[in-house]
Design brief:
238 residues, 43% helix, 25% strand, 2 domains, five-stranded antiparallel sheet, four-stranded antiparallel sheet, alpha+beta, GvpL/GvpF family gas vesicle protein, GvpL/GvpF
């Protein structure tokens, strides 16, 4: 029977998964498969697993449950193996790399930071603080029909938005990175101008959360901070 794989841990990880059920329409018990110095946490499946809300939630719950017992290498949602033999072979083949990763990630959790900015508030700031933009805007509002004005104003505003958000993102990253052992910055999407993850040691997590809360207050109106964590260190598994 095919297996859904949640995570990899050291063979001496306590697991404590006897009461957990896995993903799928017919959830099977979550269990461990030991191979050499490692253990994979799996459950039997009889169907193709799709990213439904229930299964995404169970995947996350298993990961977070395992984290409480020690370091794990969390797999992204949807990883499956043909059978136990396949899992055992993978664990043996990659044992050195997995063990090194477990050592590196031990005593840490991932925090994910996103930030977005209210577009209307940002536009008001730009028009208030940028004389050239303010002048162009006043000319358009006064009825100047020069067809180049809207394009010039749009380009100026777009450049200002990019410049201001890049500077703000850099400042936020610089302020939070000292609390992390590692970090990774991703391309922001949608309304977000910042999207990055930090690997924060357990003994610095309270400091980190305090610093993040202080930053959110200092930035003021118009910027929304969204902090997720502590999470399994998905972003830092190599």
């Amino acid at each position: 029977m095919a297996l859904y794989v949640y995570a990899i841990a050291a063979e001496d990880h306590p697991l404590d998964i006897d009461d957990l059920s896995g993903v799928g329409s017919e959830p099977a018990p979550v269990r461990g498969i030991a191979s050499g110095p490692l253990c994979a946490v799996v459950s039997d499946i009889s169907e193709k697993i799709r990213p439904k809300r229930r299964d995404l939630s169970i995947h996350q719950e298993v990961q977070e449950h395992l984290m409480r017992g020690g370091p794990v290498l969390p797999l992204q949602f949807g990883y499956t193996a043909a059978d136990e033999s396949t899992v055992e072979q993978v664990l043996l083949k990659n044992a050195d790399g997995y063990l090194a990763n477990l050592e590196r990630l031990g005593g840490c959790a991932e925090y994910h930071v996103r930030a977005s900015q209210d577009e209307e508030e940002l536009l008001r700031q730009i028009l208030r603080e940028t004389p050239e933009a303010s002048e162009l805007n006043e000319r358009i509002r006064a009825g100047d029909r020069d067809p180049q004005l809207p394009m010039a104003l749009g380009q100026l505003i777009a450049a200002q938005v990019q410049e201001r958000q890049d500077a703000l993102a850099s400042g936020l990253v610089a302020a939070l990175v000292p609390f992390a052992r590692e970090h990774t910055v991703r391309q922001a999407s949608g309304a977000d101008f910042l999207n990055f993850s930090l690997l924060v040691p357990d003994d610095r997590q309270e400091e980190f959360r305090t610093a993040e809360a202080n930053l959110a207050r200092q930035i003021g109106d118009g910027v929304e901070f969204r902090l997720s964590g502590p999470l399994p260190p998905y972003s830092f598994v190599e």
